[in-house]
């Protein structure tokens, strides 16, 4: 059954695209990918994509950053070489804690932000010199493209996409 | 339309009645004479002897010691009367503060026995100074404690009064900010915020009575109002307060206070009237409300800051902090948003807010979260700058709080920062009503403690507690709040149907959350 064929249906309006996505989903066709020039609100819900867990990773990275900062301030200021600097209490970490709060805060934010961004790049497979995966350059400007793999009746799928208001439908061989 | 149920009205009246009775009792049971105070102190001392090793003992020890320290400060100030130059007075205060600090270090690092020594030493020193004066200060300690005990019912009431007034005022100011920002999401909450703000009239009235009673010297909450503090020939002379006389004087204080209250009440009266008038959809009315609110917000920012100096900071007239007004603002702002969220959730569960959906609750919870962090930022900025520089005349403020109010002082940071941050950081949790209520209760309790720790150390010092007086104050103002809010809400259409942003608010939807059961059916 399986072929290497996909259909590229192009739209020129995000509202029409949304309706098309809902219609194709309701006919139980799998949508491989949708390419848009800008974020379309509600598209992920319409496509049934799982919510992102990026925020959870950021929270964990933040805790990591906080721990690093606690360790750093404790080791350098209290454990390794406790000097009397301007009368600040260095008997224990807690006694001098208020002085460490700015760095605790900043390192928490630093870790949360940067590690989350790197996670995003890795999960999205984005890096310098990466070859663009864009099937049609118009999708970066003013067109929306829905990619539906062909399983079984190609004619029927073409006919369905025709009814969704696509401005152009191409059948493409993939490798 | 909402019907103020008889049951709820009854609850409000019962709360107020119980609160009044309890407050009356706490005034009645406060010591009247020096002998009463001595008796109580003797009881406390006996308690000391009995439980040498317990933790409570250690705590009370601190209390006693700090009291003596305070006392030393007083006596030293009196001593300066002979020299009567301001510079020297300041020097003395510095010395005393340093002493206080030294003894804290002792407390922190050495055994209880040493504390006892420091304690006695301080006491002896006091007497030495007093004797050098040739005056009888034998009763001075008891007299000091007597004043604190007599202040307690007043302070208990005052904390609850200010808490209620501050929350109500900040609900009004938040409402104003929504009008000026032309916020689309919050229009369906306008009537809720108006209803809560109606409490302002009632609390202002109580505040007015309190202000007049205070100006008539019926209590000793504000030491700078005391007899002879600005008179160089008086034994009570205080050079530092004398230097602030141009601002801290009773008539000026009273007049300023009345201006703040009048200004806020006039704005509330007008905006409520005009908001109801706008139900006909007149856009001219909308612009008029906008303009009035802009003027109010400018007035509010100035008066809120000044009110926090007059009503809270001047309780410790030797101490000052520049961001105090903002800090007080943040405390009340978080509490105000929490109260808006709680009242909204309650009314929605009664089915009288059909247009409020989970996204509105989510936004309120986001504000609660954000302003909790903002409060912490200001609280810490104030604390850390003073801790870091450790200038004696500023540090005494926190020293007193950290030594004598350690539990509330630290609990407050957990309740106002760590708890809301962990609870309300999750987007799903923020739209769950019971979660918001749970977070809200802790936030409100935390900010009550915050205000408690601002007021109490300067008025009752070591004689603090959380008893009938404090609880009664809270009950009374909670009752008043319920009565004012829900009777005002019952008087108007819950939907401000003339507002041009109503539709935007009705269809408001935050993309990230799944709406559940209690929801509007409008989209």
Automatic annotation (TrEMBL), chain A:
Keyword Acetylation included in the entry's annotation: no
Entry's transmembrane regions: 54-77, 97-121
Alphabetized UniProt keyword annotations: Membrane, Transmembrane, Transmembrane helix
Chain coiled-coil ranges: none
Keyword Transmembrane: yes
Name this polypeptide is given: Quinol:cytochrome c oxidoreductase membrane protein
Species per Swiss-Prot/TrEMBL record: Tenacibaculum lutimaris
TrEMBL record, chain B:
UniProt keyword Mitochondrion, yes or no: no
Residue ranges crossing the lipid bilayer per the database entry: 156-181, 202-222, 253-271, 292-312, 324-347, 367-389, 409-427, 434-456, 468-490
Keywords from the named record: Membrane, Transmembrane, Transmembrane helix
Keyword Membrane: yes
Protein name: Quinol:cytochrome c oxidoreductase quinone-binding subunit 2
Species this protein is from: Tenacibaculum lutimaris
């Amino acid at each position: 059954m399986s072929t290497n064929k996909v259909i590229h249906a192009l739209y020129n309006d995000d509202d029409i695209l949304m309706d098309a996505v809902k219609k194709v989903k309701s006919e139980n066709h799998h949508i491989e990918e949708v390419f848009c020039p800008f974020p379309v609100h509600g598209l992920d819900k319409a496509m049934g994509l799982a919510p992102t867990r990026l925020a959870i990773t950021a929270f964990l990275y933040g805790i990591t950053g906080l721990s690093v900062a606690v360790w750093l301030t404790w080791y350098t200021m209290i454990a390794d070489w406790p000097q009397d600097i301007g009368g600040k209490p260095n008997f224990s970490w807690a006694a001098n804690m208020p002085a460490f709060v700015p760095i605790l805060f900043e390192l928490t934010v630093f870790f949360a932000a940067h590690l989350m961004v790197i996670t995003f790049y890795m999960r999205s497979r984005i890096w310098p010199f990466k070859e663009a995966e864009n099937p049609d350059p118009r999708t970066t400007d003013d067109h929306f493209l829905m990619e539906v793999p062909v399983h079984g009746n190609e004619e029927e799928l073409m006919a369905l996409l025709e009814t969704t208001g696509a401005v152009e439908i191409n059948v493409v061989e993939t490798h | 339309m909402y019907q103020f149920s008889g049951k709820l009205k009854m609850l409000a009246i019962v709360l107020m009645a119980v609160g009044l009775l309890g407050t009356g009792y706490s005034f009645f049971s406060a010591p009247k004479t020096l002998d009463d105070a001595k008796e109580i102190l003797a009881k406390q001392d006996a308690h000391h002897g009995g439980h040498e090793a317990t933790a409570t003992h250690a705590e009370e020890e601190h209390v006693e010691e700090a009291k003596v320290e305070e006392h030393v400060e007083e006596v030293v100030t009196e001593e300066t009367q002979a020299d009567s130059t301001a510079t020297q007075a300041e020097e003395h205060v510095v010395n005393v503060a340093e002493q206080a600090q030294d003894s804290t270090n002792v407390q922190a690092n050495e055994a209880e026995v040493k504390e006892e020594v420091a304690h006695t030493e301080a006491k002896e020193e006091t007497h030495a100074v007093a004797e050098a004066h040739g005056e009888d200060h034998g009763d001075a300690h008891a007299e000091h404690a007597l004043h604190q005990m007599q202040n307690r019912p007043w302070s208990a009431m005052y904390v609850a009064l200010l808490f209620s007034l501050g929350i109500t005022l900040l609900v009004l100011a938040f409402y104003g900010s929504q009008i000026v920002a032309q916020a689309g999401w919050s229009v369906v909450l306008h009537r809720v915020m108006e209803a809560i703000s109606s409490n302002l009239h009632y609390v202002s009235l109580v505040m007015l009575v309190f202000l007049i009673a205070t100006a008539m010297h019926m209590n000793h909450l504000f030491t700078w109002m005391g007899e002879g503090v600005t008179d160089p020939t008086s034994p009570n002379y205080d050079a530092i307060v004398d230097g602030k006389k141009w601002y801290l004087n009773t008539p000026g204080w009273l007049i300023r206070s009345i201006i703040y209250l009048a200004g806020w009440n006039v704005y509330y009266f007008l905006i409520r009237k005009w908001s109801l008038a706008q139900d006909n959809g007149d856009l001219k009315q909308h612009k008029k409300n906008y303009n009035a609110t802009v003027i109010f917000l400018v007035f509010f920012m100035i008066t809120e800051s000044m009110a926090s100096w007059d009503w809270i900071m001047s309780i410790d007239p030797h101490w000052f902090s520049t961001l105090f007004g903002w800090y007080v603002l943040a405390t009340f702002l978080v509490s105000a948003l929490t109260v808006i969220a709680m009242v909204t959730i309650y009314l929605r569960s009664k089915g009288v807010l059909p247009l409020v959906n989970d996204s509105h609750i989510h936004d309120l919870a986001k504000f609660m979260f954000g302003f909790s962090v903002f409060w912490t930022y200001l609280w810490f900025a104030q604390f850390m700058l003073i801790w870091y520089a450790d200038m004696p005349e500023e540090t005494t403020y926190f020293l007193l709080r950290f030594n004598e109010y350690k539990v509330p002082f630290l609990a407050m940071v957990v309740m106002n920062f760590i708890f809301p941050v962990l609870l309300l950081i999750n987007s799903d949790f923020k739209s769950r009503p019971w979660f918001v209520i749970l977070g809200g209760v802790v936030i409100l309790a935390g900010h009550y403690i915050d205000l408690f720790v601002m007021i109490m150390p300067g008025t009752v010092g070591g004689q603090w507690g959380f008893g009938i007086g404090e609880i009664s104050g809270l009950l009374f103002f909670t009752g008043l709040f319920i009565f004012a809010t829900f009777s005002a809400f019952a008087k108007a259409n819950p939907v401000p149907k003339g507002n041009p942003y109503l539709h935007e608010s009705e269809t408001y939807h935050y993309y990230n959350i799944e709406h559940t059961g209690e929801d509007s059916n409008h989209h």
